[in-house]
Structures are given as C-alpha cells and as structure tokens.
C-alpha cells in the first residue's frame, strides 16, 4: 500500500449480471488502479457512461466489484457477495450520489437532519451545525420546503450538506454541482474548498467539467471509455488557497485544460 | 365518486378560484341532471317501483327528526368502522412483518390471492352462523373484505420501494429498523391509502349486506324490513342514508390522506402529468 494512502484501488473490474441467461455482459471497468492519500482532493473526469458512478458505488460499498481490490485503510471490500457489503463502512465514507436521493416526505431541513437522527446524534450542537450549513449554501428560508418544492440545484445543495453534516472523513461526490448555474456553482466550489481547507477531509470528486476538476483538485484522473481504466493522471500544482474565479486565466490552468481536454475527447 | 375524490385531493393547494368554481358548477349541474332523471323515471314507472326524489328527501328528514334513521345509520357506520380497523390494521402491518421473509410471503401468497378473489359476501351466512346476528358477524365480514384489499395495496407499496433511498440511508449507517421506519414505511403510505380508499365503500357495503341477511338493527335491516312492507320510499331513504355514510367515510379517508401525504406534489399537478 502506497505511503499515506487511505484508499487504494487495485486492478478493479466490474461487469453487471447478464441481461439474459447465457449472454455475456460487457466489462464496465477493467484493471483500474489508483490510490488516494489522506486529506487529498482527487478529481476524476471521464466520458459519460465510462463507469464513474459504478466506481464510486464500489468504493462506498453499495455495489460489489467483480474483481480486483478496493481497500479502505486496512479493510478490503468483499467481492461478489452483496450481503457482505458494509455501505459507508460505519460512516467513514460519505457518498453524495449523482441523483440527490432526498426523502420526498421530509423537508429540506428534515433531510439534512436525517443522518444525525438515524445515527442517534441529534442534539442542540449538531442541530446548530445543520442550520449553519443550510445558511452556508444559501438554503435559509427553505428549511420547511419539501423536495418537490425545491429547485434542482437546491435539492443538490441539500444532498451535499446532508453528508457534510455528519462529517465523514472521506467523501465521495458524484457531480455534486451538475444542476446549478455558473454563479452558484462557483460559490459552491469556493465553499467546498473552504470546508475542505478547514477539515482536511479526503474527497473523491467526479465531474464532467474539466475546469472544475482542475480548479478543485490536487490531482485529476482521466478515465478511458468503457471498459474504464485510468488513462492518465495530472498533478495540479496551482497553489492554494485558490481563487476559483481567477484561476481560469493562469497559464498552468490553460495547459492542463488543453491536455486533459485532448484525452477526454 | 372517483372524480369527486380527485377534486377533493386537489384542494390541498387551491386551484385557481375560477377553475374551482367551474368545477363546482359542473358538479351541481351533474347533480341536477341526475335528480331530474330520477324524477322522470319515478313519474314514468310509478312510485311503487321508483320513489321520487322529493318523497325520499322528505323521508330522510322524517327519519332524521324521529332519530330512527340516525340510530340505524350509527349502527351500520360503527360496524363498518370497527371492521375497517380490524381488517385494515393487520393488513397494513403484515407486509412489513413479512418484508424480510420472502419465503413466508411466497407461501402465504396463494392463500392471499384466493382470499382476495373469493366472493366475501358469500361468507356472510357463515359468519352469522359462527358469530350470531350481533355486531360480531358484521365486523368479521367487513374485516375480511377490507383485509385483502389493504394487504395487497400495502404489499405493492413495499415492492415499489426505491432501493437507492435505502442505499443512501445505509451509507449513513442507518440500521434495519431505521430503514423500515424512515424509508419503507413512509414510501408505502400512499399505497396503503390507495387500499383504504378502495376498501372504504366495501366496508359500508359489507356491513349493510350482512344486516340484510340477518340483523335486528342497521340500515340493511331497515331496507329488509321496508322491503317486506313494500315501502319503496323507505328503501330509498335507507339507501340514501347509506350513500351519505360512504361520502362521509370517503371524506374522512381523504382528509387523513391529505394530512399524512402533505409532502406530495399537489394532485392537480399529478393529474396533469397523468393526462
Ligand atoms: N445496474 C446496472 N446494470 C447494468 N448496467 C449498468 C448498471 N449501472 C450502470 N450500468 C452500465 O455501466 C456503464 C457505466 O455507468 P455509470 O453510471 O457508472 O457511468 P458514469 O460514468 O457515471 O456516467 P455519467 O457520467 O453519465 O454519470 C453504463 O454503460 C451503464 O449502462
Ligand atoms: Mg454517473
């Protein structure tokens, strides 16, 4: 295991069950390897359908791998047997899914409090933290709205802080800022960087947006088309703290952008 | 009936006032038309066969004033309500208990399908034989009728469970109990209500039928009694009273549903989406 790696993926492979008996199902992911250092913000880009969500599902242990190894600290995820999975590994891995997966029967605030409630950690202090997160992402005044009364971007933000509120050391994010306008997106990115800077979490951040991947990441992985594997790796040496708006014109940024752009295309 | 309940659920978020008014107008016109049709039929066939709306209304008021109608209606409503709970609560609970036991569910399935399909009204004489002509036999008939309807609708609610929500909760370290309480149950509530709404008129109907066969009180008994006396208007009055109870029950179920399901997008929007 690489020094300081908190998460290690080795020769990971995935194929879903065949749709008809006897039929061969294609490999979605094959021979995928990388590791994530503790406290790192790793971004992953790749074409649509490459298997990014599938990869995160296997890391979060909501889905099984067909081969290879997913190791979190010293724990190796079980292969094949869905029953042996430990989703979230006892709240060590938070997962902000691509769909917001809000509970429709809970209000915005009710959804944010949900993890605290089921973990039995809802008290004055955690409640105050939830409230401050609600305000931090601009949802103040919408606490009592049900999901169907929120915009797509507001739902995304709700799902984002629902994971932040219980403070898991590792957070997987699947295009968390996909459904918001450019302005809000920049704000949320800045918020994320600030929160990450304070808490030094380990974050694996999947996105379609190359600029976002560079602006946020310590390192960017480019995945190939299915069967997905790591096509290339880019260290982002732009110093922190970063200014999300100003970064786009830096020469390092432009070079990286063009290099990654050429690979994803 | 169906149309009426849609309008009522739509009331959660008020439709534009003009639209609501035109709906009310439509309903009023419908009512007037039906009453007119009824009047024409009774004139045409004679009140011996079909009582007139006016005579029925007068009978209703007379029955109410004397307290007789209310007394019998309260028996019927009480039987239906108790049977509704006796059948509905276990029916809504059982699928949750069986959720983790697919083998048990599969074993029970043929019995449940059989029970669902069997003509329950044919059981009425049997229940009267077993439980006597008192309230027990009516509650049993209503309970059995309601049970199978609610069981299957609850079951389909559990089967429609969104597994992505469950995974989300599991990632957040929710245990089995929390998943059941916070995700499976609230997700199934709309389905339970579908069952309750369908079962409601059946519960009144079941009580009335059991009373028709054998009873010494209730609206069904009243119908039976008046039929023997060739009192057509009297029968119409009892039937009208039955219909009123169905409306009342419907209103109660809808109000409860509206309260419990206030998190849902308004029914108006769903109607439009369906169309
Ligand atoms: N449950 C499933 N059963 C069968 N095939 C699946 C399943 N889930 C995903 N796939 C397939 O796996 C491939 C990768 O899907 P995945 O959702 O991981 O892509 P992605 O990289 O996240 O795409 P996007 O960027 O559009 O979200 C797709 O071809 C998809 O059809
Ligand atoms: Mg995806």
Short descriptors:
heterodimer, A: 265 residues, alpha/beta, Rossmann fold, six-stranded mixed beta sheet, B: 275 residues, mainly alpha, MetI-like fold, 12 helices, 82% helix, disordered N terminus, binds adenosine-5'-triphosphate, binds magnesium ion
What does this structure look like?
The complex is a heterodimer of chains A (265) and B (275). With 265 residues, chain A is an alpha/beta fold. Chain A has a domain at 1-15 and 26-92 and 202-265: 3-Layer(aba) Sandwich (Rossmann fold), CATH 3.40.50. Helix content of chain A is 32%, strand content 23%. Chain A is built from 7 helices and 10 strands. Chain A has helices spanning 52-59, 108-118, 124-136, 152-164, 182-199, 210-216, 251-264; strands spanning 5-15, 27-37, 41-45, 67-72, 75-76, 93-96, 170-174, 202-207, 219-223, 230-235. Chain A has a 6-stranded mixed beta sheet, with helices on both faces. In chain A, strands 2-1-4-5 form a 4-stranded antiparallel beta sheet, with helices on one face. In chain A, helix 2 (108-118) runs parallel beside helix 4 and helix 6 crosses helix 7 (251-264). Chain A is globular and about 50 Å long. The model of chain A has no long low-confidence stretch (mean pLDDT 91). Chain B has 275 residues and is mostly helical. Chain B has one domain (65-268): MetI-like fold (Orthogonal Bundle), CATH 1.10.3720. Helices cover 82% and strands 0% of the residues of chain B. Chain B has 12 helices and no strands. Chain B has helices spanning 2-10, 17-45, 53-66, 68-97, 102-117, 124-131, 135-159, 163-171, 176-213, 219-228, 232-260, 267-274. Chain B is globular and about 70 Å long. The two termini of chain B are 19 Å apart. The interface between A and B is medium-sized, with 26 and 21 residues. The complex binds adenosine-5'-triphosphate (ATP) and magnesium ion (MG). Magnesium ion binds next to helix 1 of chain A.
């Amino acid at each position: 295991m690489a020094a300081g790696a908190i998460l290690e993926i080795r020769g990971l492979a995935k194929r879903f069950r065949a749709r008809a008996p006897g039929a061969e199902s294609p490999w979605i992911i094959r021979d995928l390897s990388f590791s994530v250092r503790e406290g790192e913000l790793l971004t992953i880009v790749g074409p649509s359908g490459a298997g990014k969500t599938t990869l995160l599902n296997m890391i979060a242990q909501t889905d099984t791998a067909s081969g290879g190894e997913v190791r979190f600290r010293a724990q190796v995820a079980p292969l094949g047997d869905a029953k042996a999975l430990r989703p979230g590994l006892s709240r060590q891995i938070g997962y902000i899914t691509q769909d917001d997966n809000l509970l429709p029967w809970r209000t915005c605030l009710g959804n944010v409090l949900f993890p605290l409630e089921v973990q039995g950690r809802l008290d004055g202090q955690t409640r105050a933290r939830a409230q401050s997160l609600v305000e931090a992402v601009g949802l103040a005044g919408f606490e009592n709205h049900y999901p169907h009364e929120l915009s797509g971007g507001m739902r995304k933000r709700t799902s984002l802080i629902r994971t932040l509120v219980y403070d898991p050391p590792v957070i997987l994010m699947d295009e968390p800022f996909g459904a918001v306008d450019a302005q809000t997106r920049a704000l949320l990115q800045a918020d994320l960087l600030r929160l990450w800077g304070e808490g030094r979490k380990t974050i694996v951040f999947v996105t379609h947006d190359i600029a976002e991947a560079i602006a946020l990441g310590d390192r960017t992985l480019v995945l190939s088309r299915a069967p997905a594997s790591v096509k290339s790796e880019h260290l982002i040496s732009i110093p922190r703290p970063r200014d999300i708006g100003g970064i786009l014109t830096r020469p390092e940024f432009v070079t990286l952008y063009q290099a990654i752009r050429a690979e994803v295309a | 009936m169906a149309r009426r309940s849609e309008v009522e659920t739509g009331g959660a978020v008020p439709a534009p006032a003009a639209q609501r008014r035109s709906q009310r107008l439509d309903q009023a016109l419908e009512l007037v038309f039906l009453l007119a049709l009824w009047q024409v039929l009774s004139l045409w066939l004679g009140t011996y066969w079909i009582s007139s709306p006016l005579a029925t209304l007068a009978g209703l008021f007379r029955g109410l004033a004397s307290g007789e109608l209310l007394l019998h209606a309260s028996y019927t409503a009480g039987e239906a309500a108790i049977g509704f709970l006796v059948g509905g609560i276990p029916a809504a609970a059982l699928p949750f208990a069986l959720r983790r036991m697919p083998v048990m569910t599969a074993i029970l399935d043929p019995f449940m399908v059989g029970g669902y399909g069997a003509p329950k009204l044919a059981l009425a004489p049997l229940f009267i034989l077993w439980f006597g002509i008192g309230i027990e036999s009516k509650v049993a008939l209503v309970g059995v009728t309601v049970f199978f309807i609610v069981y299957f609708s609850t079951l389909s609610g559990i089967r429609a469970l969104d597994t992505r929500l469950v995974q989300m909760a599991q990632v957040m370290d929710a245990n089995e109990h929390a998943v059941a309480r916070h995700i499976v149950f609230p997700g199934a509530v709309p389905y339970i209500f579908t069952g309750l709404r369908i079962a409601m008129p059946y519960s009144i109907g079941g009580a009335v039928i059991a009373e028709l066969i054998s009873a010494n009180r209730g609206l069904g008994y009243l119908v039976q009694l008046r039929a023997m006396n060739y009192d057509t208007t009297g029968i119409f009055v009892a039937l009208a009273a039955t219909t009123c109870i169905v409306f009342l029950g419907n209103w109660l179920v809808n109000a409860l549903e509206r309260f419990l399901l206030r998190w849902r997008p308004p029914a108006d929007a769903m109607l439009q989406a369906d169309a």
